[in-house]
Design goal:
Number of strands: 21
Largest sheet: 7 strands, mixed
Strand order of the largest sheet: 17-18-16-15-19-20-21
Radius of gyration: 22 Å
Oligomer: single chain
Mean pLDDT: 94
Distance between the termini: 41 Å
Strand content: 15-25%
Structural class: alpha+beta
Shape: globular
Low-confidence stretches: 218-224
Number of helices: 18
Length: about 475
């Protein structure tokens, strides 16, 4: 199976092989995903992403039993009646949504009770309100989130996969349907939104033109292309939904941290928590695979380190982590979710290390001056944010946590994992790093009958096939 996994800074195509108790991944193609600023607006280069997907499928080779796509949430493309894209999707870090959430909240008092989604300034709802009366939105016939847009181009199928749809703040989390009444109250046209589909649903086969473009038409035994048909299946197309499938938990008493550019910190539930206290704590209820609820809060993640490294040309993370381990613990801490850390440095905001130093200076703390001190400040602050978020998740949901699973790129960061275990007072199981791709592959594998069972069965396979490391509180 080919898992297309699109992140905020890069995309890749990973081939997963499943069978006879084995589960192996091979990355066959990686490509950059950088924002493009044009006319003062920050965009995604979605055509470059599509080209990267085609190149990855070509590299995957024959035979392919299935393809599945996951990506980041909330961003979308607008199509006209002919199905043509009306412009490059706007990046969620663009400034157009500043102040929009406050306007919407003044109009809708039951927003959380309906959607269960935390208020983040870049949610799809606020993007659409910000885009009201723009020429593109005025003539748009259909809105597709990023994985569904790429699926359309691959198969011709038009649908919205539910786990990603739940992040828009436009889905009724109680009924699992589009919240059309809410849309009408805020001036969003419900007809823009396609029918919903579920993880594991067959979305169609690769179109003949796609097969030809990728060389997958099959040219006989000496050829290098793929033979059709190649089915495309919906997966947990929000990358966090796939990552949570890839959490190798045993039992239900676990918390998770899906740590990449963002950190998604929470627990897995059977039903949403829609209390006023949950709303005030800004927790989100997002749809998961198999009818689960991902009860979590977004915490800024490795973005802070990524942007800091960009300000230190020639620096590498591993040596900095080694030096950071000897820096005084908690000499200074920041609020990782402070608004000044959200946007990339475009020449006006200043480099991330300078913003971190100013944040500490305003708080009367020691100001980090060296790269190692900045790194330690970031990691200490993330660990504390994880502790507070997990403690709140337990209290608000009634779900007990006995172990924390940290998956994604952050699982490679041994210092962050140990700090998280220390401040949480709980064991941390780090890995798999490739949780998102593994979750993507496992949902596909179950859809085609290569594996069977519940989420617990899929996770059991992960525990026996993937390298994991356990960190004990010190």
């Amino acid at each position: 199976m080919a898992a297309v996994d699109l992140g905020a800074s890069s995309g890749r195509v990973v081939v997963g092989e499943v069978g006879a108790g084995g589960l192996a991944l091979t990355e066959v193609h990686r490509f950059p995903n950088g924002p493009v600023r044009l006319g003062g607006t920050l965009h995604w280069d979605v055509l470059a992403l599509y080209r990267g997907v085609l190149d990855g499928l070509r590299a995957a080779g024959d035979p392919l039993a299935s393809v599945g796509i996951d990506s980041w949430a909330v961003d979308y493309g607008l199509l006209d009646r002919s199905g043509a894209l009306l412009g490059n999707p706007v990046h969620y870090r663009d400034s157009r949504t500043e102040g929009v959430a406050e306007r919407v909240l003044s109009l809708v008092d039951d927003l959380y009770a309906t959607t269960g989604v935390q208020v983040l300034p870049f949610n799809t709802l606020f993007q659409l309100v910000a885009a009201a009366r723009t020429p593109q939105l005025s003539v748009a016939d259909r809105l597709l989130l990023i994985p569904d847009l790429l699926t359309l181009w691959l198969t011709g199928d038009v649908a919205a996969e539910r786990t990603n749809a739940s992040t828009t703040q436009l889905l009724d989390i109680r009924t699992g349907r589009w919240a059309t009444g809410l849309m009408e109250r805020v001036g969003v046209d419900p007809s823009l939104f396609p029918p919903l589909c579920e993880p594991g649903d067959h979305r169609g086969d690769l179109l003949p033109a796609v097969l030809a473009e990728t060389g997958l038409t099959g040219t006989g035994p000496t050829g290098t292309g793929l033979t059709g048909p190649v089915p495309v299946h919906a997966v947990g197309s929000h990358d966090t939904a796939s990552a949570v499938v890839g959490v190798p938990a045993e039992g239900s008493a676990f918390g998770y941290i899906s740590c990449g550019t963002w950190s998604l910190v929470g627990v897995e539930l059977d039903r949403p928590v829609l209390t006023e206290e949950s709303r005030r704590a800004n927790f989100t209820n997002e749809a998961g695979v198999d009818g689960t609820i991902r009860y979590l809060r977004n915490v800024m993640g490795l973005w802070l380190l990524q942007e800091s490294l960009r300000a230190w040309p020639g620096s590498a993370l591993e040596p900095l982590l080694a030096r950071a381990a000897s820096v005084d613990a908690f000499a200074c801490v920041i609020d990782p979710d402070a608004p000044e850390f959200l946007a990339p440095d475009d020449g006006s905001l200043g480099p991330m290390p300078d913003r971190i130093a100013e944040h500490c200076r305003r708080g009367g703390q020691r100001v980090p001056t060296s790269p190692a001190e900045v790194v330690r400040c970031v990691l200490d602050s993330l660990a504390l944010a994880y502790r507070d978020t997990l403690a709140q998740a337990q209290r608000l949901s009634g779900k007990e946590i006995e172990v924390v699973h940290l998956v994604g790129g952050g699982a490679r960061n041994g210092l962050l994992c140990q700090l998280t275990a220390d401040v949480c007072g709980l064991p941390v199981v780090a890995g798999p790093v490739e949780a998102t791709a593994l979750g993507n592959v496992l949902v596909q594998a179950r859809a085609i009958g290569a594996v069977h069972g519940t989420l617990a069965d899929l996770r059991a396979l992960l525990r026996t096939t993937q390298p994991l490391r356990r960190y004990t509180p010190s």
